[in-house]
Amino acid sequence: MVTPMELLRSNLSRVRIPEPTNRIYKQECCISFDTPRSESGLFIDMNSFLAFGKDSVDWNYEKTGNPIYLHLKQTKKPVSEDRPLKKPTLMAIGFEGGFNNHEPEYEESHSIIILPEFLSLPFPSVELPEKVRLSVDAILMAEGAERKEQVVSWTADNKQVSAYAMNLQQIDNGVIVPPSRWKCCKCDKTDNLWLNLTDGMILCGRKNWDGSGGNNHAVEHYKETKYPLAVKLGTITADLEGADVFSYLEDESVVDPLLAQHLAFFGIDFSSLQKTEMTTAEKELDQNTNFDWNRIQESGEEVEPLFGPGYTGLINLGNSCYLAATMQVIFSTDSFSSRYYKKQSLKQAFENAPADPTVDLNTQLTKLGHGLLSGKYSVPEQEKQEGIPPRMFKAVIAASHPEFSSMRQQDSSEFFLHLLDQVERANAEKPELDPSRSFKFGIEERLQCSSGKVSYNRRVDCHLSLTIPLHEAINKEQLEAFQRLKAEKSLEGKEISSEEIVRPRVPLEACLASFSAPEEIHDFYSVALNAKTTAIKTAGLISFPDYLVLHMKKFVMESGWVPKKLDVYIDVPDVIDISHMRSKGLQPGEELLPQTVTGSELEASKPSANEDIVSQLADMGFNYFHCQKAAINTSNAGVEEAMNWLLSHMNDPDIDDPVSQEATAEVLLSFVDQSKVDTLVSFGFEEEIAQKALKASGGDIEKATDWIFNHPQVSASPDMDATSSSVQSATDEGLPDGGGRYKLIGLVSHIGTSTQCGHYVAHVYKDRRWVIFNDNKVGASVNPPKDMGYLYFFERLNG
User: Fold this and answer.
1) Does residue 68 carry a pLDDT above 70?
2) What is the overall mean pLDDT for the chain?
3) Predicted local confidence at residue 617, as pLDDT
4) Which residues are catalytic?
5) Does Zinc-finger show up as a keyword for this record (predicted)?
6) Concatenated DSSP letters for 712-761?
């Protein structure tokens, strides 16, 4: 009979010693959420370095023939209950001063397992072959791939040394900064003050979206002087690493290695200063560790914890609540739960996966679906649900989107659209399996110009973005009384209490009506009249999806392009009927506008260089004309992009040639700055229309916005015709369709002043009750905030 050691030696060719570039998984199974702390531990394939739970390691052996595995098992150590808690001081996980979840310590044991019989050999052991010992040592010493991705995300935003710190010129103008009682040189602000390290001016910081903060005097001073570095007063202590230094030219928080010297120039003895202000990072940290536990999270309510199938929470990976809330609602739909749970086993997903299942979206969605819906990871444990960490799913879904790859908060609406786009791509070979299709519907816009002729433009969308008509509020009398009370208390120097605040209450029906309501389009260029005129635009739906998602435009742009969140309630009924919103298409007697494309768009916005970019580059010593050329050839994307172009083209033979309008127009048409596209998308425009508008307007956001409003006939989607004489059936377009009655099944709510900060929570209607999903916490909802949603999910009622 062959002994385990003999069997191991006969399979040494299957054992690899990992190299530094190899990805080694040792924290979590690639097809389930089993870990070394699971009952059966974790099995690491010593050839591919993928990790598997007890159930799936057999599948890997059948698929690859790899028989040798390193088994990791962690057992909890007893922990003293009086261990002191430390508040984090660093935006990081697992580093000194960083986040500590105060988890118990574990003892880890190792052994070599040989499949298919699960024969075991102890490790460490001098009897093991040297190759095996070297491989195991390398695996255990290596940083796991999961951990690497997590650290990269957290440290992606680490502060860098400023390029202007080492050679910063300081002006000897006699300024001596006192140790306290600072005040802005241009207003009466005594907090949020910044010391310019070039001339010693003390000025207030930026004004926040909600009106708080400073009066922008520090940044205005930079624009006037171009002095790049400032330090926030109140953050300077003996530990200078904690000081908040900002570089206006680099537009980010930076490190100044010579900060002590720069402060001493203005008579500042930093060793005697006490910290009085929070740094920018600490404010973000404070927001992440102390959420605003308001009604959305049902704070103060006796929420009953729930466990079992469909009641599994998602661990927050760091500002990942937007992902968690969205995925909880997504997997409450039959289309996603069927595709990735009911009709697809984990074994099927693994068999269909590529060699590395961690990079396959369908596999990771199946893993997530089984993790959320099976109930395997949702069992009572000390009256607290642990939840599952969606690390691998987040890494895959974010691979093509740099923002979602970061640890910054994101817009759940943008993530929802990105998710459906990626799911559609992942199912391209078998579109009949694509669950994203259940959210798709067609929109038709009708335009009629003063000539009487019409055009019909159609596109496909996955959610209906609705403006909120505040003038349709049903509590106008209470609002007027509140404004009077607010004015009275303001005169008395008193503040309004939270209990006294009255918010507009707008019916959802009014929001839906605003989508279909006639809208005047001024300066519409009519090819029938060959002139600009006023057109009337109306919109309707050509199909009704299985699941209707309503996106409430709570973030609007005020004058000066300042974003603002609408503090408003939306009265949302449990059942809605949108049958009246179905588009009727071309009607008898209507005449279509001619399909003529003009080149006037480019002529109307001839390319020109952004003067801010040009002046900043010129200040660095570059030739002014070359700077203009660089800005134009990078579509005014930014200083860094223009500088990179300059450095790459300084020796071009035509660098001194005049700028050609035709050639530059061609460049502008081929170059679109993605950050500007994202900005327009955040305003509520579709990405493809935003790209067209930026191309037509030379990369200028304001001109692009005007272009969109002046060209409403432009269709973004290639999925549907731009102009049509009749409405094709939804089935011809591959879209689901049915009746217009829907029931509310879920909502994603947002807390905070911006989609880029705050917190997201999901509420889902299941098993005849509302359930709250707040990251890893899952409970029976007592008072679901149905009037405070950001995304509403409706399911079509049949019959």
Assistant:
1) yes
2) 82
3) 81
4) 321, 759
5) yes
6) TT----TTS-SS-SSPPPTTTTT-----SEEEEEEEEEEESSSTTSSEEE
